[in-house]
Amino acid sequence: MDITDHSRDIVGLTYVYPVVSRRAGGVSVGINLNPNSACNWRCVYCQVPELKRGSAPKIDLTRLEKELSNFLQEIIYGSFMQEQVEPDARRITDVALSGNGEPTSAKEFKQVIDVIGRVKLKFDSLKDLKVVLITNGSLIDRENVQAGLRRLAEINGEIWFKLDSVIRERRQQVNNTRMSSRQVYRNLKLSALLCPTWIQTCVFKIDGNPPTREEIKAYLGFVEKLLQEGVLIQGVLLYGLARSSMQPESPRLTKVTRKWIESFGKEINSLGLTVKTNM
């Protein structure tokens, strides 16, 4: 296993899969609530093959709990780490709800968070383990999602809220969503109110062009407004392309330079926010 392989079926389970996370620095135990590869967005850099529009299917909560419990047992007490993971990454960094689509689209989202909380309590060494929700934030106005986020905060959880652009046209191009900037702003504020929230932003070139200066200024203004209104954002996770996109736009996408991403990070940091960058 290495950072270039985020296969969802590496251990042959329906919902649970391990990855070596470049951002977390160890083994992240993934929860895939979208084994049907359905998502309400279609980001051009998405690594999911045969991605389709839609939502998560009905979740078998009993199966999820069994898979997660058994796999954590194997990681802690079995031979998985020694056989599959390089020595410097042999630690569990988090449980992460990510997978092949938008996890909050699952109708059982709140119950899923309850399952994760119960399983964590079975292992003394994992009681303080971080639980991360990686989300596009589009469904946070739903009551069941908000209930799940409140519970997530109670089990040492945090949200990584996707914000690739604050310009609507660019967001339509990159994320293939018609969600307005106003709705993004409202949902991000609500997210931060319910559970510790990081902004996660993917930066890259399209047809050889990185985000324009206009886009960067708009992004900085958006974040600055949040801070001025007292919205408690934990920081920004700024990252580039690490794996090949499986979307039709893939040939048009290339990486920005380390210098570019670090320069952007410094501008965000000047607003008073912690910034973590990954190429």
Keywords:
disordered N terminus; alpha/beta; 8 helices; eight-stranded mixed β-sheet; globular; TIM Barrel; 279 residues; 12 strands; two-stranded parallel ribbon
| Main beta-sheet strand count, sense and barrel state | 8 strands, mixed
Total domain modules: 1
Question: Largest sheet, order of strands side by side?
Answer: 1-2-5-6-7-8-10-12
CATH class division: Alpha Beta
Q: Compute the gyration radius: what is it?
A: 18 Å
What's the average pLDDT?
Answer: 93
Structural class: alpha/beta
Low-confidence stretches: 1-8
Tally of helical segments: 8
* CATH-derived topology: TIM Barrel
Cα separation of the termini: 19 Å
Globally, the shape reads: globular
Q: How would you name the CATH homologous superfamily? A: Aldolase class I
Estimate the strand proportion.
15-25%
What series of H and E elements makes up the topology? EEEEHHEHEHEHHEEHEEHE
For the record, the CATH architecture stands as Alpha-Beta Barrel
The level of helicity is 25-40%
- The count of DSSP E runs of length 2 or more, i.e. the number of strands, is 12
